[in-house]
Amino acid sequence: TTRLVGSEMCIRDRLMPDKPYLFYSDGCPHCHEAQEFLNRKYPELNIIKVSVDNKDGTRLMSQCARKFKLGRQVGIPLFCLGDKYIVGWSRRYEQKFHNYIKPFLK
């Protein structure tokens, strides 16, 4: 797992299409559920976790939102997975995530 915060964000100021992203906030209960799912089902997954609790993280999430033309439908957690995305989290998204993450698994 790669976690980008603060000054590291300057290095990665644009989305990389070949990397999976999770945009989250520390105060978001659905974000915690999504991260618990990742820890349980995909402990070896190298997903870039980006906190939107700072302006650099929010800016990067905005790029993902624009890429998928989410407009007002953007929320967190937000998974940016190549040409697919998932907004929000509940158990019903687990199978969708599994299908979308396959190209990123080694």
What does this structure look like?
The chain has 106 residues and is an alpha/beta fold. The protein is 36% helix and 19% strand. It contains four helices and five strands, in the order βαβαβαββα. The chain has helices spanning 8-11, 29-41, 55-67, 94-101; strands at residues 2-4, 20-24, 48-51, 78-81, 84-87. A five-stranded mixed sheet has the order 1-3-2-4-5, with helices on both faces. Strand 4 (78-81) and strand 5 (84-87) form a beta hairpin. The longest helix is centred in the first third of the chain and has 13 residues, at 29-41. Mean pLDDT is 88; it is low at 6-11.
Which helices and strands appear, and what pairs or packs with what?
Layout: E1 2-4, H1 8-11, E2 20-24, H2 29-41, E3 48-51, H3 55-67, E4 78-81, E5 84-87, H4 94-101
Parallel strand pairs: 1-3, 2-3
Antiparallel strand pairs: 2-4, 4-5
Radius of gyration: 13 Å
Total helical elements: 4
The order of strands across the largest sheet is: 1-3-2-4-5
Distance between the termini: 14 Å
Beta-strand content estimate? 15-25%
Care to count the β-strands? 5
Query: Kindly state the mean pLDDT as a whole number?
Result: 88
